[in-house]
Design brief:
alpha/beta; TIM Barrel; 23% strand; binds iron/sulfur cluster
Length: 348
């Protein structure tokens, strides 16, 4: 199956410009963009991952992580090959970095590699599977879903008609054109990986300002949003960087936007770093508190009381969690069961 992309424009000399992410690649005929999944054939842009996911699972929504968007629900989760980032610490690098090197960004080679190593799953069938497994929603996740926006969009439109919600787990590089096109998406978890442009350039091949702009654009569109930061020892764990992130959330978004601070484990090219010490995660947690954020969570650490949702008014524990499991739940009609304070998010 070959699907022409929606998010692009045609240029002269059979070049095209992709509009899905902020790289805005100008792609000559016969080549792909930086993500190695969108290729120019004869002056038209095609999405080679359309209907070809490479990872499919049924996950608790807490795994995304989304803690304030229908907690306790299940999401049919899809990801494809490719990514517009090249993070040295990527935990899904076997998905995200394939087929960049293998295809050398030649479009026909990329198409062949992607499609012969993926599962064929057209949008209608994806939704049928989600309904079959009694999922509550669909998550576009594992790699950056903006690069397969057209596939996500078509699944999401069908899913919505069947009463399912749609969530994006993103690194925050969508263009405004992509966000408009993806209006059917209900909620986002976006990585804010560091508060340093050097970090983004060195480890991800992208720019901090572009990510900050995308996060603000998502928030302005009144989508539910939660932010995640993977704290890497010696790289993004300084007081200055963590404070920068916490204050950005508070000042540019809202004190009610949840911040997930997650523990790093060595992976891919970053094997020389240690696992994030618990004290560093607690330092970040306290920085978030001092900045005035209402909902801060420590992730990838089992058994901490900092994965609990507390009422910002009376301080009582409202959702106690153990990993992705919910142990107790005290929110009724979106309010604290004890004092009646409104809790930010979407709750059933
Ligand atoms: S989605 Fe891919 S092809 Fe499009 S601009 Fe981003 S990296 Fe380039
Ligand atoms: S954005 Fe996410 S999936 Fe893509 S390379 Fe970075 S960590 Fe991996």
């Amino acid at each position: 199956m070959l699907k022409e992309a929606f998010l692009y424009k045609r240029l002269d000399k059979k070049k095209v410009q992709c509009l899905a992410c902020k790289h805005r690649c100008i792609i000559p005929e016969g080549k792909t963009g930086l993500c190695a999944t969108r290729g120019n054939e004869n002056g038209r842009l095609y999405l080679y991952t359309y209907a070809y996911p490479a990872a499919i699972n049924l996950d608790p929504i807490e795994k995304k992580p989304l803690f304030h968007f229908y907690p306790g629900t299940w999401v049919y989760s899809l990801g494809t090959f490719g990514c517009n980032f090249r993070c040295s610490f990527c935990q899904n690098w076997e998905l995200s970095q394939f087929p960049k090197k293998e295809s050398k960004f030649y479009s026909l080679k990329a198409k062949q590699l992607i499609q012969s190593n993926s599962t064929f799953l057209p949008p209608q069938k994806a939704v049928e599977n989600a309904l079959h497994y009694r999922a509550d929603g669909i998550a576009y996740t594992y790699n950056e879903p903006a690069i397969w926006a057209e596939y996500a969009h078509d699944i999401a439109e069908i899913a919505k008609k069947h009463g399912l919600f749609n969530v994006f787990v993103s690194s925050g590089y969508e263009t405004d054109e992509a966000l408009d096109y993806l209006d059917v998406i209900d909620a986002y978890n976006v990585d804010l990986k560091a508060f340093s442009n050097e970090f983004y350039l060195k480890y991800c091949g992208t720019k901090l300002d572009n990510v900050l702009d995308t996060i603000k654009s998502i928030y302005k569109r009144k989508k539910w949003i939660e932010i995640t930061t993977l704290v890497i020892p010696g790289e993004n764990d300084s007081e200055e960087q963590l404070k920068g992130i916490a204050e950005f959330i508070k000042n540019e978004l809202s004190k009610d936007v949840p911040w997930h601070i997650t523990r790093f484990h060595p992976d891919y090219k970053m094997l020389d770093k240690e696992v994030t010490p618990l004290q560093t995660l607690e330092k970040a947690f306290n920085i978030g508190k001092e900045a005035g954020l209402n909902y801060i969570y420590i992730g990838n650490v089992l058994g901490t009381d900092k994965e609990t949702t507390y009422c910002p008014r009376c301080g009582k524990p409202l959702i106690e969690r153990y990993g992705f499991r919910i142990l107790s739940y005290h929110i009724k009609n979106g309010r604290c069961e004890y004092c009646g304070a409104k809790i930010a998010g979407k709750f059933r």
